[in-house]
């Protein structure tokens, strides 16, 4: 591999979160029985005319500004002609030579190095229908067509071929997803198809400036699939080149089960689509004042929020990066800090116990039963000495499972910390009497013996004794 360099560019399709489709008023709601979210316009019936949804244009501008694009003053729609069962009109309304946004970029960080990835363009288009294969795409005996998704508004974001590894491609996608989610124009749910990716990849001799022959991998719908497919394709192309073969320009599909890419069709070129301006849609002149109004309404984006967490909250860069990865997690964290103004303590709980429980239960932060003010109440109980840190973790798990208030759980389960010195002294005296060997070990300089004795006291009190008080009393008795 050292003799070859991979050159990767991504085409990311993002479904916009509008109530109605891009050229008609049919619903964009996910799901539903096949072919029930349709009308004559999105079915391409004769005599129908498309009408642009203004919110789609606004969302496209909003996304374009967030990824540092220039917004065009003049933009138009085109017909992309090709024949496929999921295309009711036999053409797709898209944008070709005059897209809505151009020349943007994203900065990504991989292995401590920051790289700027260019963005060629962002354009609007309508989604196609969905083929339901009776098997895999390469083996199915027949397929069914569901047009519910036909006409759902999309933006396509095309990167420059600036990515050099599967890891960089994954990080670019993660960063792009976070930014788009922050803008509110899409939910980016990959499992529902609202964020999909096509990857173009070629190899060239290390040090060469000339691109090799590329292949395109279609419809990668997870970060893991993207990274694995690119890694496989690099391996496959390397073997072909080393055996003296040549790479064929083609479109390939990713087989998740087998972990390989498979040929799908020969790669088309722009002229194969016979692009032509759509005669049913007038060109758009984008008002500059409107663009600036949209720019001023943009929320604080991930990079700015990350820097604020470092500067304002004093968090380490690692914490700030994780916490701002999604808008929902960042909002949750900030609501917790408002109720309990100790950002680092809150960060530790959110990134530690909360993230662990969310991952183990496959739950998103938006479905978390623990409200920010409840986490603050738990931390306050620790500060007051009502419960210990160990008990707090037990209470936290119960809160996550039930959504109950921490005070209620502590009361129901009798978990109030014992801070009565007299009560703890009695237990300490018994533990010291029962463990003369550990007492002797400590007095002979073996500090680890103290930890054992503390553990015995905590065990005897079922974890309820105040650990600071236990440590102090043991040291006083031993000395």
UniProtKB/TrEMBL annotation:
Name this polypeptide is given: Aspartyl/glutamyl-tRNA(Asn/Gln) amidotransferase subunit B
Complex and partners: Heterotrimer of A, B and C subunits.
Domain Asn/Gln amidotransferase intervals: 331-478
EC number: 6.3.5.-
Reactions performed catalytically: L-aspartyl-tRNA(Asn) + L-glutamine + ATP + H2O = L-asparaginyl-tRNA(Asn) + L-glutamate + ADP + phosphate + 2 H(+); L-glutamyl-tRNA(Gln) + L-glutamine + ATP + H2O = L-glutaminyl-tRNA(Gln) + L-glutamate + ADP + phosphate + H(+)
Keyword hit for Cytoplasm: no
PANTHER family to which the protein is assigned, alphabetical: GLUTAMYL-TRNA GLN AMIDOTRANSFERASE SUBUNIT B MITOCHONDRIAL AND PROKARYOTIC PET112-RELATED, GLUTAMYL-TRNA(GLN) AMIDOTRANSFERASE SUBUNIT B, MITOCHONDRIAL
Record keywords: ATP-binding, Ligase, Nucleotide-binding, Protein biosynthesis, Transferase
Functional summary from the UniProt entry: Allows the formation of correctly charged Asn-tRNA(Asn) or Gln-tRNA(Gln) through the transamidation of misacylated Asp-tRNA(Asn) or Glu-tRNA(Gln) in organisms which lack either or both of asparaginyl-tRNA or glutaminyl-tRNA synthetases. The reaction takes place in the presence of glutamine and ATP through an activated phospho-Asp-tRNA(Asn) or phospho-Glu-tRNA(Gln).
GO biological process entries: glutaminyl-tRNAGln biosynthesis via transamidation; translation
The keyword ATP-binding belongs to this UniProt entry's keyword annotation: yes
Gene Ontology molecular-function annotations: asparaginyl-tRNA synthase (glutamine-hydrolyzing) activity; ATP binding; glutaminyl-tRNA synthase (glutamine-hydrolyzing) activity; transferase activity
InterPro entries: Asn/Gln-tRNA_amidoTrfase_suB/E, Asn/Gln-tRNA_Trfase_suB/E_cat, Asn/Gln_amidotransferase, Asn/Gln_tRNA_amidoTrase-B-like, GatB, GatB_C_1, GatB_Yqey_C_2, Gln-tRNA_amidoTrfase_suB_CS
Gene field: gatB
Similarity-based family: Belongs to the GatB/GatE family. GatB subfamily.
HAMAP family per record: GatB
Species per Swiss-Prot/TrEMBL record: Pelotomaculum schinkii
């Amino acid at each position: 591999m050292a003799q070859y360099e991979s050159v990767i560019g991504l085409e990311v399709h993002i479904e916009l979160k509008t109530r109605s489709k891009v050229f008609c008023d049919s619903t964009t709601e996910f799901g539903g029985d096949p072919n029930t979210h349709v009308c004559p316009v999105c079915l391409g019936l004769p005599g129908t005319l498309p009408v642009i949804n203004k919110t789609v244009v606004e969302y496209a501008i909003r996304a374009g500004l967030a990824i540092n694009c220039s917004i065009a003053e003049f933009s138009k729609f085109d017909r992309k002609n090709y024949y496929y069962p999921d295309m009711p009109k036999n053409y797709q309304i898209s944008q070709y030579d005059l897209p809505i946004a151009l020349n943007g970029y994203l900065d990504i960080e991989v292995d401590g190095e920051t790289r700027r990835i260019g963005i060629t363009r962002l354009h609007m288009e309508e989604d196609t229908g969905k083929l339901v294969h009776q098997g895999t795409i390469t083996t199915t005996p027949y397929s069914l067509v569901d047009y519910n998704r036909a006409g759902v508004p999309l933006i396509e974001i095309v990167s420059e071929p600036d990515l050099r590894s599967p890891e960089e491609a994954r990080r670019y996608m993660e960063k792009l997803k976070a930014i788009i989610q922050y803008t509110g124009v899409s939910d980016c749910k990959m499992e529902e198809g609202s964020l999909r990716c096509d990857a173009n990849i070629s190899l060239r001799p290390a040090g060469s400036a000339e691109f090799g022959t590329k292949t395109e991998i279609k419809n990668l719908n997870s970060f893991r699939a993207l990274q694995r497919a690119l890694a496989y394709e690099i391996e496959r192309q390397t073997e072909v080149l080393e055996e003296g073969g040549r790479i064929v320009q083609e479109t390939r599909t990713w087989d998740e089960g087998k972990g390989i890419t498979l040929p799908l069709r020969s790669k088309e070129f722009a002229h194969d689509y016979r692009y032509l301006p759509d005669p049913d849609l007038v060109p758009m002149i984008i008002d500059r004042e409107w663009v600036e109004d949209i720019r001023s309404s943009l929320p604080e984006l991930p990079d700015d929020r990350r820097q604020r967490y470092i500067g304002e909250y004093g968090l380490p860069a690692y914490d700030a990066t994780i916490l701002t990865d999604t808008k929902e997690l960042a909002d949750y964290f900030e609501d917790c800090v408002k109720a309990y103004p100790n950002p680092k303590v809150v960060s530790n709980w959110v990134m530690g116990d909360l993230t662990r429980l969310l991952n183990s239960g496959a739950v998103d932060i938006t479905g978390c039963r623990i409200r920010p003010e409840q986490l603050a109440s738990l931390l306050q109980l620790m500060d007051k000495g009502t419960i210990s840190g160990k008990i707090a973790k037990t209470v936290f798990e119960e809160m996550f499972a039930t959504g109950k208030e921490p005070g209620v759980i502590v009361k129901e389960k009798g978990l109030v910390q014992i801070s009565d010195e007299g009560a703890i002294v009695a237990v300490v005296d018994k533990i010291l009497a029962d463990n003369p060997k550990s007492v002797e070990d400590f007095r002979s300089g073996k500090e680890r013996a103290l930890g054992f004795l503390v553990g015995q006291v905590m065990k005897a009190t079922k974890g309820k004794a105040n650990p600071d008080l236990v440590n102090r009393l043991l040291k006083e008795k031993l000395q």
